[in-house]
Amino acid sequence: MTADETLMEFSQRIARLPRYPVAGGYALPDDVAMLASNETPFGPVPQALEAVQRATMTAHRYPDPSNARLRAALSDRTGVPSSRIAIGNGSCDVLLAAGEALLEPGAELVHAWPSFSVYPHLAAASGATAITVPLDAEHGHDLDAMAGEVTVATRLVIVCNPNNPTSTALPAAQVAAFVADLPRHVVVILDEAYCEFNVLDDPDTTIDLLDNHPNLVLLRTFSKVYGLAGLRVGYGLCGSEGMVQALDQVRQPFFCNVAAQAAAAEALRHQDTVAQRVERTVMARVEVEEGLRALGLDPARSQANFAWFDVDRDPERAAQLEPEVVVGLRDRGVLVRAGTALGRDGALRVTYGTEAENTRFLDALRAVL
Ligand SMILES: *Cc1c(COP(=O)(O)O)cnc(C)c1O
Domains along the chain? Predict the structure, then answer.
């Protein structure tokens, strides 16, 4: 920093705001297994790419700020009326907008930890107080403990199901009971970025809860199973129209670009591809979990497209080993996420890749350990 630079005065929230832990690897050669960001290894469906090409012919015009076609397509698929669907520039956009719409100094937000690395931003950006509730011994949400933290000041509770970074999922019936028992003034965001990969329940069972719970938002994304992470589009299925209006009020009008809107609407039409990807993910899950167990490790019970495990059964040794393991894997062309950056020293989060990438990861891990 130059002397002149240090004279700039940023707002207090800049000092509070955490910086997103960047995965790295974007400047590495092509022959790298990118297993750090929970993307799908399969590309967008070709029809979505064609839709992008058609949409960009009108790139001199602003996109439809009401996202009407995409909301209609989502409404058709989910049965939720368009007026209760919020679109976002990725689902993180909807999440951060919810923070702005609901939180302020004096308000409280309850979420589990370790959980999604973006949640701490909501309290930091708004000046609200974050109450973080530790996961249970099986790396899952402790819903009773979370309910116990709710007060008159609570505005928002976030439940990540399946949970990132720990991969575990709660049965839908437990989530339903939790939502039903909360006071009605508390908004619940159920972050379902990985719901398609969860085989405990039909991914769409939670949609029925919206009819009885105006305070509920189901947060979903095109970044994971649909393979559109680079285009940035996600959505919230909401229990009330008022929530959609508030989410739109706090954002700029054109938050979702023409290419993203068109690709997402098209991708929804290919549920057969979604089903195939889920099947391949479940096969990868079995292969990776078996491989980790064969190395003497104890992965969490994943219902997502990634694994979470300590690099040693002894927590202290795991914490010591973790940095070396991450570097050792990187030297072998395998990029993963270090648990330290995600709330648990000694753990790794590893996205399932193609069959070849999964084998490469397991071979590399064996060599490093
Ligand atoms: C990946 C992910 C998202 C999706 O983020 P986008 O902004 O839609 O790309 C949301 N929540 C969790 C928990 C995630 O892991």
Answer: 5-43+271-368 (3.90.1150.10), 46-267 (3.40.640.10)
